[in-house]
Design goal:
80 residues, mainly alpha
Length: 80
C-alpha cells in the first residue's frame, strides 16, 4: 500500500520542487549553463582568499568574471 501511495505522490514532487519550471527555463533560454565555465572552491580554510585571487587573475586577463563569496558578490568590476 505504501508503494502505491508513493507512486501516486511522485508526480506532485516535480511540481512542488519547481523542477518543471526549471526545465522550462532551461529550454526557453537554450541551456545557458552549457556556455558558462564554473570554478568551485571548497574546503575548510582559505576559500574567500582563493576565490578572490582567482577572480582577480581572470579579471586582469580580460576574462568575463563573476564572484559570489561570503564577503561580496561581483560581476565584472562591479560590486553588488
Amino acid at each position: 500500500m505504501r508503494q502505491f501511495i508513493y507512486f501516486l505522490k511522485r508526480p506532485l514532487h516535480f511540481i512542488k520542487t519547481g523542477l518543471i519550471k526549471g526545465t522550462w527555463g532551461q529550454i526557453k533560454y537554450r541551456f545557458p549553463a552549457k556556455k558558462i565555465n564554473t570554478i568551485v572552491i571548497t574546503g575548510t580554510d582559505g576559500k574567500t582568499t582563493t576565490s578572490n585571487l582567482v577572480y582577480h587573475i581572470l579579471n586582469s586577463n580580460n576574462k568575463k568574471t563573476g564572484l559570489i563569496s561570503t564577503v561580496a558578490a561581483k560581476i565584472g568590476k562591479k560590486e553588488l
